[in-house]
Design a protein that fits this description.
- 51% of the residues lie in helices and 17% in strands.
- By secondary structure, the chain is an alpha/beta fold.
- The protein folds into four domains: 153 residues, Response regulator (Rossmann fold); 155 residues, 2-Layer Sandwich (Alpha-Beta Plaits), CATH 3.30.70; 140 residues, CBS-domain (Roll), CATH 3.10.580.10; 59 residues.
- β4, α5 and β5 form a beta-alpha-beta unit.
Length: 540
């Protein structure tokens, strides 16, 4: 027998093993010991795992703790009979559907209706006929396996076979409650494949799919049975690590990062290197909820990506000082003793969540802002909306009359007015969020962006300059000259665009409205630049 024949037989055997139905967990419930033993033997002979209960109350306690796949239960039992047990089970929110097979000597129409109304799926009459019983058991098994398959389709990512995002959040809720109840650590790891778009663009989406599948297998191999892994979206994965603090999760992430970087992807004759970035966060006393735990890990991931990729960043480091105290004391400190209210730009534009997208877009254009906090009817911040959010809703020419509350992002980061500006600076230096909202008891009073901080630093440096009044006067003269040159340059560009518009409208036939709208938008932007040069000390 040659090697190819042996290999075919092995492949055939593996295929048969995969196609062989897996055994079910079947609970047999009967207060009669002899019947209980008989039914248990028949179920066991069919290849299933058997659980036994002597009465309905005992069965209910077991079902609530560990639901079986199928229940074979006698109708007539003291305390809690089969119909009552079935009704109790159907009222519970279990992890999966439990198929219910009633054993009964009753055969009247009314009793059949009663059993079905209570939630029973099928009946086997007494005395038990082995052949009929096994046939009905097999029919129930087919339904259970079909339910298993459908549940798997709804809970798992079709490409990688691991949990999808929806199922992950269900598991996250349960683990959060357990960790909170018992005071146990719980950590979350967000993972993003580096330069994944490059793999798709240069080698095709099939290669990208292979990369995702390979990384999913590595994550499964490196994880524990208690870890919960999902494909969070696109090239992002998320892992919930129970019973593990942040430092322990970082050690796990570093090990996985090394494995991924040392396992190149084979695509045809090519070998593609793969690396990944990791963000880690732990559930702490001030973590608001399970969703915030994932968000904190995602913020740490953003820092890992923007600081060079192929690294692990834990959220705890984002709260550590960027400069040590000796460094801060050795030099003049532009952040020392400064509060958020001292630096913020006043929040002049604060749309209501019930305002339309059209109205907010007009506010942005008139005020020359690119984002703003959104408030409810009481004036409390409920979210933040940006130009990008408005564009996403209106890009197809629709959505102008939608409420901005449907468009805004609800994860607005807010700091109280008396927050030391150093905390805001360190946060904006490490995350991809462009700005934060300054609030006074939940109501917006200002915003701070990286540009706001840069302006603050520039003004602080100006106040620290030495060299007497002559140097300051020279600096102010240079500032005026730059602003004047900007006004002249922008005015010339404005005149040129207006003249070009007149010429094209006179020369071209057809609908001129689209061209006028486009040029009016450009002229409006130039007019805003002219006003910007007129603001003292503001050079765009």
């Amino acid at each position: 027998m040659n090697c190819s024949t042996i290999q075919r037989k092995r492949d055939c055997a593996r295929t048969m093993d995969r196609n062989k139905p897996s055994p079910l967990n079947v609970m047999v419930v009967d207060d009669d010991a002899a019947t209980l033993r008989l039914v248990a033997r028949i179920v066991s002979s069919a290849g299933h795992q058997v659980l036994q209960a002597n009465n309905g109350r005992e069965a209910l306690d077991t079902i609530l703790q560990t639901p079986p796949d199928l229940v074979v239960c006698d109708w007539d039992m003291p305390e809690l009979d089969g119909v009552q047990l079935c009704r109790e089970v159907r009222q519970q929110l279990l992890t999966h559907y439990v198929y219910f097979l009633l054993l009964t000597g009753r055969s009247s129409e009314g009793e059949t209706v009663e059993g079905l109304a209570a939630g029973a799926d099928d009946f086997v009459t007494k005395p038990i006929n082995r052949g009929i019983f096994l046939a009905r058991l097999e029919a129930g098994s087919r339904i259970v396996r079909m339910e298993r398959q459908l549940r798997s389709f709804s809970e798992r990512d079709s490409l990688t076979g691991i949990l999808n995002r929806r199922k992950f959040h269900e598991c996250l809720g349960r683990e959060w409650e357990r960790a909170t109840r018992h005071g146990r650590p719980l950590s979350c790891v967000m993972i993003d494949l580096d330069f994944f778009k490059r793999i798709n663009d240069e080698h095709g989406h099939a290669s990208g799919d292979l990369a995702l599948q390979a990384v999913a297998r590595l994550l499964c191999d490196q994880g524990r049975s208690s870890d919960i892994l999902c494909r969070y979206g696109g090239e992002e994965f998320c892992v919930l690590v129970p019973e593990t603090d942040e430092l322990g999760a970082v050690r796990w992430a570093e090990r996985v990062r090394d494995v991924i970087s040392e396992t190149p992807l084979a695509v045809g004759d090519l070998t593609l290197p793969i690396t990944a970035s990791f963000g880690v966060a732990e559930r702490l006393a001030d973590t608001a909820g399970p969703e915030q735990l994932v968000e904190l890990a995602d913020q740490a991931l953003a820092v890992a990506k923007y600081s060079g990729r192929n690294r692990v960043v834990r959220f705890g480091t984002l709260k550590e000082p960027m400069l040590n105290p000796s460094d801060r004391q050795a030099a003049a400190d532009p952040l020392g003793g400064v509060l958020a209210r001292d630096v913020m730009a006043v929040a002049l534009v604060c749309p209501n969540q019930n305002d339309t997208v059209r109205y907010v877009a007009d506010l942005f254009l008139q005020s020359r802002v690119d984002s703003a906090p959104v408030v409810d009817d009481t004036g409390v911040v409920t979210g933040i909306v940006s130009e990008a959010d408005l564009l996403a809703r209106t890009s197809l020419g629709q959505g102008w009359d939608d409420q901005v509350g449907e468009v805004m992002r609800t994860n607005a980061v807010c700091y109280e007015e008396d927050t030391p500006i150093e905390q805001v600076y360190e946060f904006l230096s490490r995350v991809s969020i462009p700005r934060i909202v300054v609030v006074d008891q939940g109501r917006p009073s200002g915003v701070i962006s990286r540009a706001t901080l840069l302006c603050w630093f520039r003004n602080w440096v100006a106040t620290q300059e030495r060299g007497g009044s002559d140097a300051r006067q020279a600096h102010e003269a240079d500032e005026r000259d730059r602003r004047k040159a900007g006004v002249i340059r922008t005015s010339a560009a404005t005149a040129q665009r207006a003249n070009d518009l007149c010429r094209r409208i006179m020369e071209e036939d057809g609908d001129f409205v689209p061209r006028v709208v486009g040029e009016a938008t450009r002229l409006q932007s130039l007019a805003g630049d002219l006003l910007g040069y007129c603001r003292s000390g503001n050079v765009p």
